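Severity: low
Component: inverse-folding endpoint
Summary: output formatting inconsistent between runs
Steps to reproduce: submit the following structure tokens with default settings.
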């Protein structure tokens, strides 16, 4: 029997892992099984974390409370004074600043009954793992998305629209809009990511942009091993990754008092990102975990050994580090 075949069925471990009826040490999975399910969860979740992939990664703090630190470096000043012959100038300190962020915990689980596990045709543990990996990844991706979409460096349409409420159905994502956003980043000397800026775009807005004759599909300029997750192509010096999880501001009323406004159509966010614009906590090293409770491990809470559970738990935070290194382009889209 192949190892993959038997680890997919939790029932095969009943006699080994459920020898006692208490929820204490001894009812958990073996170390080999823990490693398998943890690695499998990360493998399944990682491709869905589109918003995480361009952030500065930081590990989950271990034994240091609930906060993690992101560090950024300010630009060094120009040197316009000539050196004096034979005189060594003073060294310059690196000008850094630290942004602390509070890590929050998220999680959920599903129940697998003994009857379902006995009668199901499909390997229930593996199917459940796929579902919780998707749930956990999309949940964590949304946490990052909401934080980095709160930046103040905003461009409406191609820059000729004054506000979100002024966006109409004809305010589509265009090459001109992308070029203006790139110009904004270049004016701030925002560093590029592997030679280009990167955009996170919704399929609806990507549809408008890909009709331009200067659009280049990804396979014409890179190879699969060098492409980003969900990368679809490039234009105007920006490589685009596509996700249905890109931010959409639904039509409705926003703000209060003098800041109140209304939008009549959904407004799509396209993030144009430079290197070091934001930071995220890493899903490895405790950032995203699989938690499996075997049938029979619940003690008196499960007196007939009827339930097993499989779930995910994540510690997560994200922060904008340099607001000037990221532009949010807001437009309508063809739907």
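Observed output (run 2 of 3):
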């Amino acid at each position: 029997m192949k190892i993959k075949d038997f680890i997919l069925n939790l029932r095969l471990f009943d006699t080994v892992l459920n020898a006692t009826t208490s929820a204490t040490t001894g009812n958990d999975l073996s170390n080999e099984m823990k490693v398998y399910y943890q690695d499998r969860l990360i493998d399944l979740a990682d491709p869905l974390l589109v918003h995480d992939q361009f952030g500065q990664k930081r590990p989950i703090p271990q034994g240091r409370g609930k906060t993690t630190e992101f560090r950024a470096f300010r630009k060094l000043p120009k040197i316009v004074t000539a050196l004096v012959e034979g005189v060594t100038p003073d060294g310059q300190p690196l000008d850094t600043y630290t942004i602390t962020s509070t890590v929050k915990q998220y999680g959920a689980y599903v129940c697998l009954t003994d009857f379902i596990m006995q009668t199901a045709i499909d390997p229930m543990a593996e199917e459940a793992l796929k579902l919780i990996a998707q749930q956990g990844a999309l949940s964590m991706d949304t946490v990052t998305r909401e934080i980095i979409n709160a930046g103040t460096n905003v461009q409406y349409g191609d820059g000729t629209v004054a506000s979100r409420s002024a966006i109409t159905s004809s305010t589509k994502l265009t090459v001109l809009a992308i070029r203006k956003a790139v110009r904004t980043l270049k004016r701030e000397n925002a560093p590029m990511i592997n030679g280009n800026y990167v955009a996170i775009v919704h399929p609806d807005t990507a549809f408008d942009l890909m009709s331009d004759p200067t659009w280049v599909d990804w396979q014409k300029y890179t190879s699969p091993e060098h492409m980003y997750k969900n990368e679809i192509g490039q234009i105007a010096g920006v490589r685009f990754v596509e996700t249905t999880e890109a931010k959409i501001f639904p039509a409705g009323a926003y703000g209060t008092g003098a800041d109140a406004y209304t939008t009549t159509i959904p407004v799509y966010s396209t993030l144009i990102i430079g290197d070091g614009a934001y930071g995220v906590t890493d899903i490895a090293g405790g950032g995203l975990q699989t938690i499996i409770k075997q049938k029979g491990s619940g003690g008196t809470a499960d007196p007939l050994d009827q339930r097993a559970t499989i779930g995910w738990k994540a510690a997560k935070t994200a922060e904008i580090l340099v607001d000037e290194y990221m532009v949010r382009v807001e437009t309508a889209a063809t739907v």
